[in-house]
Amino acid sequence: MSSLVFVSNRFPVLSPGKPKPTTAELLFKVFQVLLPHKGSLARFCISCVLSPLPRSAFGGFPSLKTLNLQSTIILEADLNYLILKCPLLEKLTAKDCIGLGHLELDAPNLKVICFEASYNVSAWLKNTPLLQNFTSYHKKSCSVSQHLARDGRQADMLPVMLNHLVILELTLCLHSKCETSWVLHLIRRCPNLKSLYFKVIRADKPNVITAPVLDLLKAQAHSEYSLGKLSEITLEFSDDTVEVLEFVKLLLAKSRYEFVYV
């Protein structure tokens, strides 16, 4: 068995007179019965209610490599715990999930992260040294510094270099010096970055003072760091504002690009 998919939160009562188990309890009981007898499980796709997580009866998924959450109701504390109990997890996808807020990703083998949400979900990269591909799409305005902050509010320096990260895809808003500085910090923590995609969205406040942002971007042009391995840059934006154009100039100056898509 290489894949196990749960796509419903409706299960029949197993025995007359006994209470119907919660979806989460049934999911993990079925999984833990199958796992020892069917070999390693490569993919676990869930589309249902997963909170509260039955931690007392949950021994973990020791062979799970891919976790795909789609339209799943799961609290951030439960997902953090679930990830901890998947020591071989390499790929995490969370699409249109409910209940997530501020995640602390402690997953030493995690290589791919993909978030798609209609609201902001922050993901603190606590221990992800093998991360290669990080994608985050939000339907509403999102602060990158808050999105990758420890508590979802205050931007911290990333604890490790993301030496294995080669693809970075984000939505961002160049509306403040703090936000722009943190985006540049994130890029500098990815010395082997090869492909960069940014969707630049408008600021929530129409009258934003951009002078500090422009000063920061111009100052970065004289800094020593280099994005020598960055070969593909894609930027999508609706307004050709001065700060966006300056950001593009900075990326081009610091990289040895082969392809640029605007």
TrEMBL record:
Protein name in UniProt: F-box/LRR-repeat protein 15/At3g58940/PEG3-like LRR domain-containing protein
Domain of life: Eukaryota
Family annotation (Gene3D superfamilies): Ribonuclease Inhibitor
Pfam family, one: LRR_At5g56370
Residue span(s) of domain F-box/LRR-repeat protein 15/At3g58940/PEG3-like LRR: 44-139
InterPro entries registered for this protein in UniProt: LRR_dom_sf, LRR_FXL15/At3g58940/PEG3-like
